[in-house]
Structure formats: structure tokens, C-alpha cells
Amino acid sequence: MTLSDIVAGVWRMADWPMSPQQRLGWLEDCLSLGITSIDHADIYGNYQVQALFGQALRLKPALREKLQLVSKCGIALVSTHRPAHSIKHYNTTATHIRSSVEQSLQALGTDRLDLLLIHRPDPLMDADEVARCFEDLRVAGKVLHFGVSNHNVHQFALLDSRIRLATHQIELSALHTTALTDGTLEQAQQLRRRPMVWSPLAGGRIFTAQDERSCAVRQVLQGIADAQGVSLATAACAWVLRHPSRPHLLTGTSRREGLAEATAALALELDVQAWTRVWTASMGRSVP
User: For the domain that residue 40 is a member of, what is the CATH number?
Assistant: First the structure.
């Protein structure tokens, strides 16, 4: 599986005040910066984002061959677009997965997904059923690779024991460091499966949160940014990218400047002491 080092996330695309032509311009900005992978989920924008993206892609369909399209499924929201859902729940049955894939392909205007992820761990997941469904989708050419998102190491290992998973999409930032200590990133290295990291800027809290811990982290990151002549966002992204599991980093911005700040982080390698200063500020203590 090939993904760009920086992946463009479109979770909030429905909130971007853009015409289809402007969304196409955003996509062309991504490509010009080397961002070829686009991260979707069926539920984004109340099940509407994939259709918005598809409108833009249909304006220049030749771009599809330059892209890797990622989608996620398994969360069922209560929505007027899904009238059968009476309660938010998880659903990883083969019927639901196949339905999600077909709807995503139609909305995106493509014949295949490059990567499909199970969005959240489902306590009722039948690993054998999911694996058979995945294999059927692969044989049909509708999905090329598979993975999971937001699982723990045991949940990942269970499904990976049935069918090879290409990646694990996880949350990681200087303000959310659980993956550094819960075995997730050790598992990624052990299996040599590059993770995907969402919310590397902690949902914007890197810039705005005023609690003592966030301010301490921001101060250290700003010092790194100033010393290197880059933005705070670039320093925060570089901190995530420094991990030896070689994560693919998701950025959810609609701005070309924001996309460029993320890609600039690829050229900024923090030394061990600089990285540790950020980590200790986040922990609120020195390493043992």
C-alpha cells in the first residue's frame, strides 16, 4: 500500500464554504504539495462529504489516477440519510460493510477504494465474517487494502490474525500521547505497518487551550518553531512525525497555507532532546 506521508482529511468539508470548483482547486493544491491521499469516512458531514468530494472530482476525473482514496465504515449514526438507524451504534456485519462501500464508491464517483478502515472497535465484530467480506471486496477489485482505526492492540491483532491489515489510524499529538505508552506504536513497529495519525494539532487545542499543561506544551513547541524558522503547526506536526513508526500524518485544513505547514514538517527532524522537552511538558514531569 502506498500513501503520501501527509494525508488530507475531509471530515469538515461540508462546513467549508466552497463551490465544487473551489473544492477541485483545494484538491489540486493538495496534489501540488505532494499530498495524494485523501481520508474519508462514510459518516462525515452527516453522510454528505463523499458526495461533495465526488462532485469536485467529476470536474476533472483524470485526477483519480493520482489519488489514493481512503474510507472508513462501521459507525451508524442517527440521520435522516439513514432512516433505519434508531440509535447510534457500531455495525461491522458483512451486509453493512458492503453497503457502505457501494455507497462510498457511488458518491465518490470511483470504481475502487485504495484503503478501507473499520472506524471504531465493534464489541459484536465477528472477525471471520469481516475477513471474508474484506476478501470478497478485494477479489471484486472494489477495495485494495484494509485496516482499522481507533482500535487497541488486542483488537488490531484479532482482525490481523484473520486478514492482513495495512495500517492502524490512531490519535496522536503533543496533547494526546496515549499511543506512546499503550503498545499501539510498538505494535506498528513490530509488524512494520506504518500508522496513520489523526488530530496532530489536538483539534486546534495546540493553539488555543489555556490550561497549564497546554500552555507549557505550546511554549516548548513555539521555542522549537522560532529556532527553526517555522510555524507552530509545523513544529507540532514534526513532533508527531519524529516517531520511528514513520506515521502518515492527517491534516484537516481547507487552507493551502495549512497544507503547506503540514508538508513543511517532513523537512524538520527534531533531535531527541527537543522531542523529549515537548513530551515532558505534556506529561508535566521529567522522564523517570
Answer: 3.20.20.100
